[in-house]
Amino acid sequence: MSYHLPVMAKESIEALDLNPEGIYVDATYGGGGHSGLILDVLNDQGRLIAFDQDPDAAGNVVQDERLMFVPQNFRFLQRFLRLYGVKKVDGVLADLGVSSHQFDEGGRGFSYRFDAELDMRMNQNMGKTAAEVVNSYSVKALQSVFSRYGEVRNARSLAQQIVDERGIHPIKTTQDLLRVMESCIRGQRLRYLSQVFQALRIEVNDEMAVLEDFLPQTLTCLKPGGRLVVISYHSLEDRLVKNFLRSGHVDGQIEKDFYGHIYRPFEVLTKKAMVPSEGEIKENPRARSAKMRVGVLKDITDGKA
Questions:
Q1: Which of 96, 97, 157, 267 could be stapled to 296 by a disulfide with Cβ–Cβ 3.0 to 4.6 Å?
Q2: Is 28 in contact with 74 (CB distance < 8 Å)?
């Protein structure tokens, strides 16, 4: 099994409109699928800076003088570009999905299919684990996580069940959590489990805050005419990206100048999010929830765009 099949590979590379001599960022290196396709187009003058905080991803890095791998979270995009003397880039690609490897590596705790420690950290060297979340959060806090990030309909009941059960036995493994959840499952079982595990993963890795940190940095890192391509997998992620491309703010707040002209830093190329083809979804079912949005940074040196 491959480490990870790059989602919407052809479409995302075309969206970047690659300049062979350009400088590009792959914010989520993973198995190197998207990065490999970018390197295929770049010539000897081109450069690619790839980020990934997961130590496992470092094992996939190819030896290529044009590639600089940064073993960090992409929320630190601007900091590391400055560190390496990169002032502006021609394009940024961010595939926000969890890699197939992370789901299929049973010991990481990302999947309910394996009995493993409840970890779920992308970077296991830092941050709280999923076990710490389920064993320490209040009923209200757990309800918020399950409702907001997993769209779990009976989030309150599930949260209460977890708090009640952890008072008897700490919830340390995926199987512990499944046992606690069993009486709360509503509707299709696997869908319900997926929603709960997704919610915990998003909370553990602070994924929404990471995206909120990352997106505004592209305004200063991209050259005028540079492209931002983001593939998201959750409605909240997609909303943040849509708002940002439309207004320059993740909350969608519209700015106007003295004359009432609306500030729109990007030319949005995807009025409606692009989605994978039926053929791709059949080949890679994990792509089914993907949505891709693309924007071109305008030249606003002469004022509001």
A1: 267
A2: yes
Helical ranges in the chain per DSSP H: 9-16, 33-41, 55-58, 77-83, 100-104, 130-136, 139-150, 155-166, 174-181, 189-204, 207-221, 235-247, 278-283
Using the predicted structure, report yes or no on whether residue 4 has a pLDDT greater than 70. Answer: no
For 76-120, what is each residue's pLDDT tens digit? 999 999 999 999 999 999 999 776 555 556 567 777 777 889 998
Q: Helix, strand, or coil here: 134?
A: helix
Q: Is residue 127 domain-resident?
A: yes
CA-to-CA separations, 270 to 21, 33, 248, 276, in angstroms, rounded: 25, 23, 15, 14
189-204 vs 174-181: helix crossing angle, rounded to 10: 130
Name the token pair of 108: 């990481």
Q: Which domain holds residue 134?
A: 123-204
Task: Label each residue of 10-29 as H, E or C.
Answer: HHHHHHHCCCCCCEEEECCC
CATH of the domain at 272: 3.40.50.150
Is the pLDDT at 304 greater than 70? The verdict is no
> pLDDT at residue 30 above 60?
yes
pLDDT score for 303 = 45
Q: What mean pLDDT is predicted for residues 183-207?
A: 94
